[in-house]
Amino acid sequence: MSTNLKPTYRRILLKLSGEALMGDEGFGIDPKILDRMAQEIKELVEMGIQVGLVIGGGNLFRGAGLAEAGMNRVVGDQMGMLATVMNGLAMRDALHRAFVNARLMSAIDLAGVCDTYNWAEAISLLKSGRVVIFSAGTGNPFFTTDSAACLRGIEIEADAVLKATKVDGIYSEDPVKNPNAELYKHLNYHQVLEQELKVMDLAAFTLARDHNMPIRVFNMNKPGALKSVIMGEDEGTTIDNLTE
Ligand SMILES: Nc1ncnc2c1ncn2[C@@H]1O[C@H](COP(=O)(O)OP(=O)(O)OP(=O)(O)O)[C@@H](O)[C@H]1O
Ligand SMILES: O=c1ccn([C@@H]2O[C@H](COP(=O)(O)O)[C@@H](O)[C@H]2O)c(=O)[nH]1
Prior knowledge:
alpha/beta, Carbamate kinase, 9-stranded mixed sheet, 9 helices, 38% helix
């Protein structure tokens, strides 16, 4: 085996599932998972990889769930976006404790709490080795943080969007509901959209397809999986325009 393995990516947009951050708890953030993710991100930074980060909010609030309970959907989505800011604050803190330089930006102005999203500044920070956390999603209701991850990934010209989730990749069906579902290694956007494979919402996939942004989906609870993805190893599912 070669000892000169090099990372496949120069700049990535890493999407972390908010729900996976809560671990076995029903709500909130498990500090052990947060610290483990911070260590894994630190390894990437030490390898010279530029890391943009989007964190979901499913461990705290989702607008759709709040609307089902009777709340106005726009207000629910605003709460969901603010939940992603809280996750971002926790992750920035965990990265700082791990001695990783990180900046938190929000798509909604939150003076005194974090910076407002600024594209040029984000690129400049990434180039100087800072991890940039993009929070508050797209800043608009009726979207998800998967769409925000694809949007920011395209804006910062990332080499790929890496979606770290709770399952090993994209399956023929939701593997939580059907344990016999088949794990796909490669898919093209057309296949994902046609089969409505729901690991990411369709708006996010469409955006990625239109801008030719490759997506890798992998399990964030599998130790070393992120590094394997970065090293171009056979891990998770790859979606791009190349696969037939
Ligand atoms: N075809 C499929 N292949 C893989 N997973 C699927 C599929 N269909 C549905 N899923 C489900 O999609 C889920 C994606 O979870 P994840 O928590 O990453 O989503 P999210 O809504 O983006 O996260 P969050 O809002 O918590 O940040 C998986 O846990 C899995 O159960
Ligand atoms: O652009 C966006 C992104 C997110 N939201 C709201 O936040 C929650 C949490 O995000 P997840 O992607 O579900 O983790 C989401 O359910 C929306 O309510 C948003 O409104 N706009």
